[in-house]
Amino acid sequence: MSQFFTFFLMSKLTAQDSFLDLSDYGRPFGRFLASKLKNTSFTPIGVTFLFGISGLIAIYCILENHFVWAGFLLF
User: How many C-beta neighbours within 10 Å does residue 73 have?
Assistant: First the structure.
């Protein structure tokens, strides 16, 4: 597999078992965010709650035809 695609391989699997998973595109940002929140008062439940709130706001943006903002919130 080319060097470009090895970046996107699933890091939680061994090299022998890894495969290209396009649904895992947010992992690098997720790791960055987790490292920044590690020593704070944020909990995984709090982060999940904020993600849910951003999803609800994105739904509102879609209903109001603000697709760029919705895309930003869903990214």
Answer: 19
Q: Supply angle C-alpha 24, 28, 29, rounded to 5.
A: 105
CA 23 vs. chain centroid, Å, equals 9
- By percentage, how much of the chain surpasses pLDDT 90? 45
* Per-residue model confidence (pLDDT) at position 9: 56
Nearest to 35 by CA among 27, 25, 46: 27
Per the confidence metrics, is the pTM higher than 0.85? no
Would you list the DSSP string of the chain? --HHHHTTB-TTS-TTT--B-GGGTTHHHHHHHHHHHTTSS--HHHHHHHHHHHHHHHHHHHHTT-HHHHHHHH-
pLDDT tens sequence across 7-32 = 555 566 677 776 666 666 777 888 88
